[in-house]
From TrEMBL:
Annotated protein name in UniProt: ABC transporter permease
Record flagged with keyword Transmembrane helix: yes
Transmembrane segments: 21-44, 64-84, 105-131, 151-168, 175-192, 224-245
Superkingdom of the organism of origin: Bacteria
């Protein structure tokens, strides 16, 4: 029995890598993001003058939908062992629950980081291809905000999935976790924006500042603060998940 975090992480990564649903989720997310960015580019192209469209800004509009794939990936990292009953074997092999939970988080990160980077890159490439001569030169697109928006988009997607995995720990069910997370992350933010000026501190709204482009309004969170708010939500969910995971049988 080896309780080394590196070995636990490698074992959890192997489980995730051999999980058909996880592989399908990553593939569909990357392809779906590129496809959606292409559609958004078609709409932008039809309404634009030559040289007036930023492929980067067009592509980043897809991130709000792309996050669904990372929500699912984060949830699957946790719940698959519960649906199949393997969680008991995992706890027997790794009785130190903190190590097991951190190993699962690390395995998720190893899968999510390249998936997020690939999704964003594919989206920008697809938008640039569709826009063709109507697209701004890439140098101009990055002149104002640099690499911060695409890097922020990658970080946002990874954090949303990590937050989702933490929420899935007490729920232990893929369906239950998605039933909670998807409305909360996709629907609630729009409702909050209509009733409170504090909606910017909701995790997805705060995190969206990480990949926003152009000037930041005076009354809005900046990219760094928005990222910090999302990271704080994720950390709080992770702590709560760890407490629940330690206190129950499995």
């Amino acid at each position: 029995m080896n309780l080394d975090l590196g070995h636990v992480t490698a074992a959890e990564a192997d489980k995730l890598r051999t999980l058909p649903a996880a592989l399908a989720t990553v593939a569909a997310t990357v392809a779906g993001t590129a496809g959606l960015a292409a559609l958004l580019a078609v709409v932008a192209r039809d309404a634009a003058d030559a040289g007036a469209v930023s492929a980067l800004r067009t592509a980043l509009q897809a991130v709000g939908y792309t996050q669904v794939g990372f929500v699912l990936l984060g949830v699957l990292t946790v719940t698959t062992e519960y649906s199949g009953g393997q969680i008991h074997a995992s706890l027997t092999s790794v009785p130190r629950r903190t190590v097991l939970l951190v190993g699962k988080a690390a395995a998720y990160l190893a899968a999510a980081l390249p998936a997020a980077a690939g999704s964003v890159a594919a989206a920008v490439a697809a938008a640039q291809l569709v826009l063709g001569g109507l697209a701004q030169p890439l140098g101009e697109q990055f002149a104002e905000d640099g690499l911060r928006p695409p890097v922020g988009a990658v970080a946002y997607l990874v954090l949303v999935g990590l937050l989702s995995g933490a929420v899935a720990v007490p729920l232990r069910s893929t369906v239950a976790a998605l039933a909670v997370l998807l409305p909360v992350l996709l629907v609630v933010p729009s409702l909050l924006e209509t009733v409170t000026d504090r909606a910017d501190y909701f995790p997805t709204l705060a995190g969206a500042r990480m990949y926003g482009t152009g000037p930041v309004p005076d009354d809005a969170l900046g990219p760094l603060l928005g990222g910090a708010v999302l990271a704080a939500w994720t950390a709080a969910a992770a702590v709560a998940a760890a407490v629940v995971f330690h206190r129950r049988d499995a």
